[in-house]
Design a protein that fits this description.
By secondary structure, this protein is α+β, with helices and mostly antiparallel strands. It has a single domain, classed as Peptide Methionine Sulfoxide Reductase, Chain A. Strand 6, helix 4 and strand 7 form a beta-alpha-beta unit. The termini are far apart.
Length: 168
């Protein structure tokens, strides 16, 4: 019998750091960095880094819904990046580094809307959430970008866990 899984796709700055943090979360089975949300039929790093295709660097997360759920995935997402900075995370600037939730179905959309409202009401973040809700086709990034921080543990990341932004 095949294991039932769900998928989340999130953008929150450089995809290397997001992948490194999410892969360690309970219930996460697999992660893949890539590109989503653009106007071209495919994407690669050289195109996306220029900020002209409309794609965002993103992380595809496959998770076991028996262990975690989309709400917990989003709670962690909002803890590891700044959802209040438009098209920017740390030193990364441009629409390719935007904060976005690429929902896979209506249930994910509804959970995302409620989560953004809850984050805004909490007053924990430095300003209003600018995270967008989008759909799109996910394109896996080149092999050189997959598991980057496992291969280069001191490599660049703009993502880190902010305990003060933890949502219950």
């Amino acid at each position: 019998m095949d294991k039932i899984t769900e998928t989340a796709v999130l953008a929150g700055g450089c995809f290397w750091g997001m992948q490194d943090l999410f892969r360690k979360q309970p219930g996460v089975i697999d992660t893949c960095v890539g590109y989503i949300g653009g106007s071209t039929g495919s994407a690669n790093y050289d195109q996306v880094k220029m900020g002209t295709t409309g794609h965002a660097e993103a992380l595809e997360i496959v998770f076991d819904p028996g262990i975690t759920n989309f709400q917990r995935i989003l709670n962690f997402f909002f803890q590891i990046h700044d959802p209040t900075t438009l098209n920017r995370q740390g030193n990364d600037r441009g629409t390719q580094y935007r904060s976005a939730i690429f929902y896979q179905n209506q249930a994910q959309h509804d959970i995302a809307v409620a989560t953004i409202e809850r984050v805004n009401r909490s007053g924990k973040w430095p300003g209003p959430v600018v995270t967008t809700l989008e759909t799109g086709v996910f394109y896996a990034a080149e092999a050189a970008h997959q598991d980057y921080l496992e291969r280069y543990p001191h490599g660049y990341t703009c993502n880190f866990i902010r305990p003060e932004w933890k949502m219950d």
